[in-house]
Amino acid sequence: MVLNPRIPVQHQPQRLTPSNTFKVSSPALWQWRQQAIADLSQIQARSLVDLKQELDWLLLEISDLTSLDLKLAPAETQLIQMQVSLEKLQQLWQQRLAENIPVQHLTGTAHWRQFHLQVSKDVLIPRPETELLIDLAVEAARNSARLANTNLWADLGTGSGAIALGLATAFPQAMVHAVDWSEEALAIAQSNSQTCGLDQQIHFHWGQWCESLAGLEGQFAGIVSNPPYIPTEVLPTLQPEVFKHEPHLALDGGVDGLDAIREIVAIAPQYLQAGGVLLLEMMCGQDDAVKALLSAQGQYEQIQIHADLAGIPRFAQAYRI
Length: 321
Ligand SMILES: C[S@@+](CC[C@H](N)C(=O)[O-])C[C@H]1O[C@@H](n2cnc3c(N)ncnc32)[C@H](O)[C@@H]1O
Fold this sequence. Notes:
By secondary structure, this protein is of the alpha/beta class. It is built from 13 helices and twelve strands. Strands 8-7-6-9-10-12-11 form a seven-stranded mixed beta sheet, sandwiched between helices. Strands 2-3 form a two-stranded antiparallel ribbon.
């Protein structure tokens, strides 16, 4: 699981808020950035993360600068509006480097599809590749008249609520049921649904996978999940930003990484309507095993594997018979 934040937002203890505004002169900020980039030359070789890109994400997130501004240093001296002072920025950046804290935790936010989401150490930082699950759900609904008649969708293991928000936006008539086993994650997902104005369309449930959806058996047009799928022994080999700072409940898929996928594949047919679609994210290299699990379950048809934008098989799709 590669941590690839596109734009950051904010960290837990103290959320950076636009109400804290500081004006920093452009030469001072550019000098700080140049020095920070120069200092990276020693560290970058030891990191899997593109630290210069992260530095710029952090700057974009906490200031009124645009990506273009970062490419073209201002010709004239300007006052740049920032949510933190230059001293605090230096402190945050040093913390990022010394403790491998994801920039999204420093700012407390992450960008995913069109959403600007609150994140913390209690939720997985939503990854760009997961956005494809929403596109696959839309495609599945477009290709199946049977799905068009039902407006119930589920997001199992909602974390920050990203997938539930994506589904609610993609299917404006739908009611989305978002489940998580972490109460802290559910609180963040709920807060994100309110900030995004989608709380009327999403029900949140605390529980294990489908267990909290009792009473809704056979009613779902689609069940979507990005479950934990990293084999336990692989966890310590993940980049420290992930292993040290992201919740292991969101990552650890048991001995072979497939514990959660096994449970979801087994239970989902009970909750899907006939013709309903199951969409799962998985790790690179798990596609044959997941396909075999879906086939062996016996209640799925049209089992397909989809690749991410890098061409790596990362998503399984199957329809309930
Ligand atoms: C890989 S994260 C995905 C988070 C979010 N859906 C995303 O794509 O960014 C997996 C999520 O599953 C949740 N989870 C783990 N075990 C669970 C269980 N038994 N039942 C429900 N949720 C669980 C974790 O708390 C975590 O939020």
